[in-house]
Design goal:
Layout lengths: L16 H17 L25 E6 L5 E3 L2 E3 L4 H14 L4 E6 L5 H14 L4 E3 L6
Parallel strand pairs: 1-4, 4-5
Antiparallel strand pairs: 1-2, 2-3
Helix pairs in contact: 2-3
Length: about 140
C-alpha cells in the first residue's frame, strides 16, 4: 500500500490565530493608553454685581426683553434686523453727544439679541457700553 499520496492541489493555509493575537494586543494597548477625560476650553464663573455704577455721564438705555424685543429710552423699537437698530442708536447718539449705552437685558434674553445690540452699538459709534445688573445677595 502506498500511504504517500501526492496531493496535486496543495492549497496554502493562512493561520489567523497569530493575526488575531496581534490585533488584540494592539487593542489592549490603545485602550490602556487612551485617556477619557473631558477637556474644557474655558471655565466660566459668572460674577455678581456688588457695587453701584459710578458713571454719571449721559447715557442711552437699551432694554432687551425676554423674547428679544428692543426699547430705546422707553420707546419700543420694531427692530428685527441690525440696520434698524443701528439707525435708531445713531439718531439717539446724535441727540446726546458723548453718551454711553446701558444695556438692560432680561436674564432669559437670547444671546443673539445681546450680540446684535453690541454690534449695532459698535456700528453706531458708541464706544462706552455698560450692562445693568441686579445687586447680588
Amino acid at each position: 500500500m502506498n500511504f504517500h499520496h501526492r496531493r496535486t492541489h496543495d492549497e496554502p493555509e493562512i493561520n489567523l490565530i497569530p493575526l488575531i493575537d496581534v490585533l488584540l494586543v494592539i487593542l489592549i494597548f490603545l485602550a490602556a493608553s487612551t485617556s477619557f477625560n473631558r477637556v474644557r476650553q474655558l471655565t466660566v464663573a459668572l460674577p455678581q454685581a456688588q457695587a453701584e455704577a459710578s458713571d454719571t455721564s449721559p447715557a442711552l438705555e437699551l432694554t432687551i426683553s425676554r423674547d428679544g424685543q428692543y426699547a430705546l429710552d422707553g420707546r419700543f423699537l420694531s427692530a428685527t434686523d441690525q440696520a434698524i437698530l443701528t439707525n435708531a442708536l445713531q439718531q439717539a447718539a446724535a441727540q446726546q453727544p458723548d453718551s454711553a449705552l446701558r444695556i438692560n437685558a432680561d436674564g432669559q434674553t437670547p444671546h443673539a439679541a445681546v450680540v446684535l445690540a453690541l454690534e449695532s452699538a459698535r456700528q453706531a459709534g458708541l464706544a462706552r457700553v455698560y450692562f445693568l445688573t441686579e445687586a447680588g445677595p
